[in-house]
Specification:
The structure holds two protein chains of two kinds.
Chain A: H1 2-44, E1 54-55, E2 60-61, H2 64-95, H3 98-113, H4 116-143, H5 158-182, H6 186-194, H7 199-210, H8 212-228, H9 231-236, H10 254-261, H11 268-304
Helix pairs in contact in A: 1-11, 2-5, 2-8, 3-5, 4-5, 5-8, 6-7, 8-11, 10-11
Chain B: H1 2-9, H2 12-55, H3 60-64, H4 78-110, H5 114-128, H6 131-146, H7 151-175, H8 179-187, H9 192-220, H10 247-255, H11 260-291
Helix pairs in contact in B: 2-11, 4-7, 4-9, 5-7, 6-7, 7-9, 8-9, 9-11, 10-11
The chains are: A mainly alpha, B mainly alpha.
């Protein structure tokens, strides 16, 4: 009997060990980044977060400009992506005829699958010229009195980065929203239709309230993706360490700063400051993803019950 | 039944309100269709650009030759294609067995325990950690201690990206296997570990394969974690402890370069990567469809 159980135990142990690598990796990422960032953090302490200098030549580093760039680009992307993604999800679940729903879903999935570097390259060589010649001059013409639309419309900067990020986040949020929408019990929707509600009224009065928490979660997960997106942003944001109120100005994010400077960082302080940036990004995405998962999970649990 | 409704809507005020509602409905639904049309149009624009600019650069030389110095047209990306395949293969060897085993543990042994919940949650978090952060991590783990950028570090970074995807799909697919199948095997006197491997895993195999395909697709397009792990080189390299050229990093460097010939090669690389990733995604989708 004992000998029979031995392979069982070994198997259980081996799979358990594999499963343990996941928490180990997450913990190791945090520890490694914190260890790498020690020099910078000891030097500046928490003020590293709100120092706005970033000057490798003089050894002055602070996360503020990159942090702001990261947040602004991500929120700009979300502002553009949320209405689009909800529209796509509503179309897929409520409107699309059967023959169209399949191919349309496939298109959304493919849009999510296109690698970020491809969006970046397309953004730099195709979208940026279009924006600088047509869209940005038009915005400047109509809304030029706002501080957001000042400066030369070069097509490279925060505005383009936000736009490209939005395109990448749309399929992501849309896919989650579509799954949430299909979980709404058909009886409730039919009841609304029976009361004379139009399709839009069904969406507004039944589908959206029913999936509210999950949708917030979906948006938060989209935010997590937008915050850490690297290649697409690095191509089009212009990579500068100056903070400008204008969306047309070159800017930078944490991820793009890492991508640009990590291999070139020769002195210890610079490398340590970059590690600290990585730690900030990791902490931010960790918190956001945890929140998002919690909310999406809650709606799924409700829908299943 | 219809009598009261008719009398209601025949009052001019109710009629106007109804028309407004119907029109607003039409407007919102058209907006929804417009959102999808916009998304599809963007996808077509991106893919169309890739085919138009990269298609011309596809040639036999692309697959067989090394890149030329700037100014000399032609040349290929043979080393980078090989490098990408080698790195992805190595990442598969590291990430997939671990991921499948972790998924087995979650579905068969951990189940609803607290520990399993934590692992599941952290796998979801790991899936969303920015890939560049994984790159920084592996730099600290392997590049700095070993003193050199290496193909090994790149493979580890990619494997870490694959791990949570494979784990979560494996678990989900195993959970879809009916309990009765397992009970039947156990009742016949089959030891649990053989039951798991020959009944559960076998039944879930197509689904697990889907997860692996999706993981390859995800990793195949990744550039950020390779920038400072496997770095890049314009030559052949088969040494696991030396930098290795990959399609993605080469694409990044060449696209950012001022030379037209290199940008041309970058477009060709972009087309190759995208076609491969989309083909894998469609394959995974077809496999999943077939099953359900």
């Amino acid at each position: 009997m004992k000998r029979k159980q031995l392979p069982d135990r070994a198997f259980r142990l081996a799979t358990g060990f594999s499963a343990a690598t996941i928490p180990a990796v997450v913990a190791a990422v945090g520890v490694m980044l914190a260890a790498g960032a020690t020099t910078a953090l000891l030097r500046w302490g928490p003020s590293f977060l709100w120092r706005s200098q970033w000057d490798a030549a003089h050894g002055e580093f602070g996360a503020w400009t990159a942090l702001c760039g990261t947040l602004i680009s991500a929120f700009l992307a979300l502002a553009l992506a949320i209405p689009l993604a909800l529209g796509v999800a509503v179309f897929l679940t409520e409107l699309a005829p059967r023959w169209l729903a399949g191919p349309a879903s496939l298109a959304v999935e493919l849009m999510a699958a296109v690698p970020s570097i491809i969006y970046g390259m397309w953004g730099l060589f195709v979208l940026a010229p279009v924006l600088s010649e047509h869209v940005e001059p038009f915005l400047q013409h109509t809304l030029g009195w706002l501080p957001f639309f000042q400066g030369a419309p070069t097509g490279i900067g925060m505005f383009t980065a936000g736009l490209v990020l939005a395109l990448m986040v749309v399929p992501y949020i849309a896919a989650i929203a579509r799954d949430l929408f299909t979980m709404v019990p058909p009886q409730v929707k039919e009841a609304a239709v029976g009361l004379g509600a139009t399709r839009w009224e069904v969406v507004r009065a039944v589908v959206l309230p029913h999936t509210r928490i999950g949708l917030v979660g979906a948006v938060i997960l989209g935010l997590g993706r937008a915050l850490g997106e690297t290649m697409a942003v690095t191509f089009v944001i212009g990579n500068s360490h100056r903070l400008s109120p204008s969306l047309f100005a070159a800017s930078g994010t944490i991820a793009s700063t890492l991508a640009n400077e990590f291999t070139e960082a020769t002195d210890e302080l610079h490398l340590s400051a970059l590690m600290a940036l990585g730690l900030v990004l990791f902490a931010m995405t960790f918190a956001i993803l945890a929140l998002g998962r919690l909310l999406v999970g809650r709606t799924s649990a409700q829908g299943g019950a | 039944m219809t009598q009261p409704a008719t009398s209601l809507s025949s009052s001019p005020r109710a009629l106007r309100a109804r028309t407004r509602r119907v029109l607003f409905n039409r407007f919102m639904m058209l907006s929804a269709a417009g959102a999808l049309a916009f998304a599809v149009a963007t996808l077509c624009w991106v893919l169309g650009t890739l085919i138009a600019r990269g298609g011309g650069a596809l040639s036999w030389a692309l697959l067989t030759e090394l890149p030329n110095p700037p100014g000399i047209p032609g040349g290929g990306l043979a080393h980078a294609i090989t490098g990408t395949l080698l790195l992805t293969g190595a990442a598969l060897l590291l990430g997939v067995p671990t991921g499948i085993a972790a998924g087995i543990w979650l579905a068969e042994f951990g189940q609803g325990s607290r520990l399993a919940h934590t692992v599941r949650f952290l796998a979801d978090v790991l899936m969303g950690v920015p890939s560049i952060v994984i790159g920084v991590f592996v730099y600290g783990l392997l590049v700095a201690p070993l003193g050199s950028f290496s193909a090994l570090a790149g493979a580890v970074a990619l494997a870490l990206l694959m791990l949570p995807i494979v784990t979560r799909t494996t678990e989900e697919m195993l959970r879809a296997v009916p309990v009765t199948l397992r009970e039947a095997a156990l009742a016949c006197g089959c030891p649990p570990w053989i039951m798991v491997l020959r009944v559960s895993v076998r039944a879930a195999l197509p689904g697990i394969l889907t997860g692996v395909l999706l993981a390859i697709a995800r990793v195949g397009g990744e550039t950020a974690p390779l920038l400072f792990t496997s770095l890049n080189t314009p030559y052949w390299s088969f040494d696991p402890l030396a930098p290795i050229g990959t399609l993605n990093v080469t694409l990044f460097n060449y696209a950012m370069s001022p030379y037209r010939d290199w940008q041309q090669l970058a477009w060709a690389a972009a087309l190759c990567i995208t076609l491969a990733v989309l083909a894998l995604t469609i394959a995974a989708r077809t496999l999943r469809r077939k099953r359900s």
